[in-house]
Amino acid sequence: MSRVGKQPIPIPDGIKVTVSGRTVTVTKDDKSLSVCVVPEMAVEVDQGAKQVTVTRPSDSRQHRSLHGLTRSLINNMVVGLTKGYEKKLEIYGAGYGCNLQGNKLMLNCGYMGRGLNAPAQFEIPVPDGVEVQVDVPAARGNDVPARLTIRGTDKQKVHQFAADLRRIRPPEPYKGKGIRYADEYVKRLPGKAFVGGGS
């Protein structure tokens, strides 16, 4: 934690970092991200060395954890505006799929006709600052999934939206049907075995 906080954050070309009170703003072209840091953490921008440093007032446990957190939040904004963040999702299940209609993601994940208090197709608004790309719109059986990619400059927004989508239909352990991250491993369980009764 404290070792992370001590590392300076390099400022790439085209990136501008400003500190106003407790607010740190990172800007590139017409895009900007900002975060409000705790008052105990001191953020300094060295324009000559092109780096940002974060210092803490003491070595207490709380200050050490806040030190690393503050440094990570600022670094995430710099990385988001230079490289961006993305999260890939896969949707397994026969008849499952997704498509984009304007600024809404239409998600079909097998709730139709099950008598649940859920719609047959979910209409999920895409948050501002988040871009969704549908790579494969429909799954084929339980082996070839539908795929989509979520991109954005704000790491928290990208990962939160991906987590919200996964929560709609988490992968079940028997056939693996559901929504999962592309790099996620789903532990599979054997199905129930029917035991024949002897006379």
Q: What order do the helices and strands come in, and which of them pair?
A:
Blueprint: H1 2-6, E1 9-10, E2 16-20, E3 23-28, E4 31-36, E5 42-46, E6 51-55, H2 61-82, E7 85-92, E8 97-101, E9 104-108, E10 122-125, E11 130-136, E12 146-152, H3 155-168, E13 178-181
Antiparallel strand pairs: 1-6, 2-3, 3-4, 5-6, 7-12, 7-13, 8-9, 9-10, 11-12
Give the total of beta strands: 13
Which class do the helix and strand fractions yield? Answer: alpha+beta
Low-pLDDT segments, ≥5 res:
none
Determine the strand fraction and express it as a percent band: 25-35%
CA-based gyration radius: 23 Å
Helix percentage range: 10-25%
Shape call: elongated
Q: Largest sheet at a glance?
A: 4 strands, antiparallel
The H-and-E topology, N to C, reads as HEEEEEEHEEEEEEHE
Number of DSSP helical runs? 3
Spatial gap, N to C terminus? 66 Å
What would you say this structure looks like, in words?
- The protein has a 4-stranded antiparallel β-sheet with strand order 11-12-7-13, with helices on one face. A 3-stranded antiparallel β-sheet has the order 1-6-5, with helices on one face. Strands 2-3-4 form a 3-stranded antiparallel β-sheet, covered by helices on one side.
- Helix content is 21%, strand content 35%.
- By secondary structure, the protein is an alpha+beta fold.
- The chain contains 3 helices and 13 strands; from the N terminus they run H-E-E-E-E-E-E-H-E-E-E-E-E-E-H-E.
